[in-house]
Design goal:
The protein has 143 residues and is an alpha+beta fold. The chain folds into 2 domains: 8-83, Winged helix-like DNA-binding domain superfamily/Winged helix DNA-binding domain (Arc Repressor Mutant, subunit A, Orthogonal Bundle), CATH 1.10.10; 95-140, no CATH class. The protein contains 4 helices and 6 strands. A 3-stranded antiparallel beta sheet has the order 1-3-2. A 3-stranded mixed beta sheet has the order 5-4-6, with no helix packed on it. It starts with 13 loop residues before the first helix and ends with a strand. The relative contact order is 0.14. The model has no long low-confidence stretch (mean pLDDT 90). The protein binds zinc ion (ZN). The site of zinc ion (ZN) has 6 residues, from loops. Residues 45, 93, 95, 99, 101, 112 line the site of zinc ion.
Length: 143
Amino acid sequence: MPAMIKHVAALPAAPARAKLLEAGLRPTRQRVDLAKILFNGEDRHFTAEMIHTESRTVRHPPSLATVYNTLHLFAEHGLLREIAIYGAKAWYDTKTGPHFHFYRGDREELFDIPDAMVPLLNIAAPEGTVIEAIDVVVRLKGV
Ligand SMILES: [Zn+2]
């Protein structure tokens, strides 16, 4: 699990602002605050609730609804990947390319399956279609 950021306000705003502009988003204060939390140089997996908790350290903490909307917006603009897991909350990933995940529901953890463990899937697309991406979530539970 990534360490919680204690002093988000101390992180530089310029890279976050640039990232938003590059994605075609107006860099409002709340978007910049959230981008600073999300894009800290490490790939991360999270739910809106986790980010809402972390964002309590900023000067004007966003509401949970704002966090939901902003994460959804960031995903629409390609800054995040939304990962739907049956029976779980929506997860987001800062690594946006296709890759496989482990999901541990009993601990609410989502993390990448190392590429070396991923089998080559030879799946034929039905006629008239092409495979856009293959997303696999392997569910785990403790023993
Ligand atoms: Zn991932």
